[in-house]
Design goal:
The structure is a homodimer.
Chain A: H1 12-19, H2 23-30, H3 38-51, H4 57-64, E1 69-74, H5 80-93, E2 98-103, H6 109-122, E3 126-130, H7 134-141, E4 149-152, E5 162-165, H8 167-180, E6 187-190, H9 196-211, E7 220-221, H10 226-236, E8 244-247, H11 250-262, E9 272-277, E10 290-293, H12 296-311, E11 320-323, E12 326-328
Parallel strand pairs in A: 1-2, 1-3, 3-4, 4-5, 5-11, 6-7, 6-8, 8-9, 9-10
Antiparallel strand pairs in A: 10-12
Helix pairs in contact in A: 1-2, 1-3, 5-12, 6-7, 8-9, 10-11
The first copy, chain A, binds a DNA duplex (30 and 30 nucleotides) through helix 2 and helix 4.
DNA sequence: AGAAGCGGTGGGAGCGATAACAATTCGGAT
DNA sequence: ATCCGAATTGTTATCGCTCCCACCGCTTCT
């Protein structure tokens, strides 16, 4: 392997000497500046490959004040949604920016602020916060520093640059769909109150119900987990009034279906179930789950787009970019069946 | 807000001036060097908070040659395993190191080498490669640079610093368990050939079979997806010989169970099914899935530990640190039932 | 009493790159 | 032949920090 002087990695001056030009010219070649003769450029390029030269990012950053690094703050990158968004961001950024992640044990104000601080210390050019909870959005709003920052998956109401799936529309879509199948009303297993997605889905569900003149059943809330869906399902399974349930996410739908099955209730014959998210497995549930798809990847890509625009000096949009969700019709929902409501 | 001179962020000299000391002393306070009087330290600390000073990472890196940043290369951070490992790494690194991710569209040699290059350009202190495929491990082996690098989830045979779940032991564990239940043999739906985990599970399964003197059925392989499990299940559902199936992962088990259900086969009465991974949902499948748990989080933490040791100058271990898997007994496996094999 | 040891401190030299500016060359217009 | 301006190249001054070394004032040893 080519070593420059001593064992240390080659620096720009080494390249310059080998190519017979000045360091400045090497810099110009590296940064695609105009006005470099082909002769010089070729010599530099040859020297670079011969030496295995790699520019020192720290030195460059010191003078340009840009790290070409983005920070992503997330709550739990193990969950399907955050993981997908992160992946979408990373894929979209590849080549343009590095992405550094900061995942939090809890999405409270202090946690978010602390993570922003850590990333700032690292010198990121911009930050994307995967902020599904109100506390996180509030924290974002109170950040004083001038860092470009966009929130994603944060509800559609926040007054900061943000990108989110239109949860309200999605829930309404699913609710109308079930109503259209002939159900008198639709029950809803919501996510935790603190989550904006959960709140917006509740609102969408309620408004679709009201619009159709259907009675609004009492709300029950789980915690997104299959376990909570299962627990709630044990109650629902005994309630003869219930013919259709919209679940806050696919995992809870899975738990619900299992609880129903254990009580001898068939889906969709006795009860229709619709999920939310469209995780990769949901097409293979028993029965395959009808659900509302969120395109998390697109969310990530859009968030990156907005952020990069801000980094490049465009003013921060104060509104939310909404990504429309989509109903995926599989087999877990149908007309109120043979075992329909008694009344 | 406290502004130093002009609008620009305060630098060490500003802190020094305000505290009435030299920049050198500020640096000493920041880096916890001994021999700083409490008076000086307090003055510096006060100045720092008053100014809202934040050390410039690039400048520090330029001289120390450490970025306190780690790179993680991964194939698809959307999958449960990689996402969990990444999360484990990140949580374990929090505070000590930043983690920068590079996810690849494909885990081939060129992709891995390219990602290593990108990270090196960024100046990472070390790299963790989530390398479940042979091609990735080979690529790691051929990296000439002196960067500390550890592979994780890469099979247990690689001759480089690595951390992995003992797949062979896990598969053998599950196979013996099924055999112990009274099954004459155990079928296996493997993952793709190119994946080391898949190969090692196959080996573990085969050896447990051999050990017990059980016949080794023909191998079928899926692609980890529920869809492939479903497809394969359509064949298995018609095969009366099959009483027990070990699946390469939980997703394929899910697909298999659905295919079986559609053909009227009951799990575990007609066929026992055991998965691998223990994804959060598998306890809520119908029936709840008996599976082999991999502690991905621990994997990530251990990988970080090994890497940090290497960064701190310890010699790279040439072997694999094995994390033992664990059988989680739920309801999808039982003794060969009333509908047992005809012979 | 002088030398040596020590905690505490500051001064200056880089680290490796880019930006601003200055300098050189060359062709063509005057 | 002289001058001008564009193209190309080099020189110098930072960027913000840490390291090395010298230095101060004291106590402690010989």
């Amino acid at each position: 392997m080519p070593a420059a002087t001593g064992g240390r990695p080659p620096v720009m001056a080494d390249v310059a000497k080998l190519a017979g030009v000045s360091a400045q010219t090497v810099s110009r070649v590296l940064n695609d500046h105009p006005n470099v003769s082909v002769r010089a450029r070729d010599a530099v390029l040859a020297a670079i490959t011969e030496l295995g030269y790699r520019p020192n990012a720290a030195a460059r950053t010191l003078v340009t004040r840009r790290t070409r690094t983005l920070g992503v703050i997330s709550f739990d990158t193990t969950l399907f949604g955050p993981a997908s968004m992160l992946h979408g961001i990373e894929r979209a950024a590849a080549g343009e920016y590095f992405v550094s992640i900061a995942s939090l044990p809890a999405l409270d104000r202090a946690g978010v602020l602390g993570a922003v601080d850590r990333l700032l210390e690292q010198g990121v050019d911009g930050i994307i916060v995967i902020a599904p909870m109100k506390s996180a959005v509030d924290a974002c709003g109170s950040i004083r520093h001038g860092v470009p920052l966009v929130a994603v998956g944060c509800g559609t109401q926040a007054s900061l640059a943000s990108v989110a799936v239109d949860n309200g529309a999605g829930a309404a879509l699913a609710t109308r769909y079930l109503l259209g199948l002939g159900h008198k009303t639709v029950h809803h297993i919501a996510g935790p109150r603190a989550w904006l997605d959960a709140q917006e889905r509740i609102a969408g569900w309620r408004s679709a119900l009201r619009e159709a003149g259907a009675p609004a059943p009492e709300l029950v809330a789980g915690d997104w987990s299959s376990a909570s869906g299962y627990r709630i399902g044990q109650g629902i399974g005994d309630d003869l009034e219930v013919t259709a349930v919209l679940c806050g996410n696919d995992h809870m739908a899975l738990g619900l279906i299992r609880a129903l099955a254990e009580r001898g209730k068939k889906v969709p014959d006795d009860i229709s179930v619709v999920g939310f998210d469209d995780i990769p497995e949901s097409g293979y549930f028993l029965p395959p789950l009808t659900t509302v798809r969120q395109d998390f990847g697109a969310l990530g890509r859009h968030a990156l787009g907005v952020l990069v625009a801000m980094i490049d000096g465009q003013p921060a949009p104060q509104a939310c970019l909404r990504v429309p969700p989509q109903l995926v019709d599989r087999a877990s929902a149908g007309p109120p069946g043979r075992a329909g409501t008694p009344r």
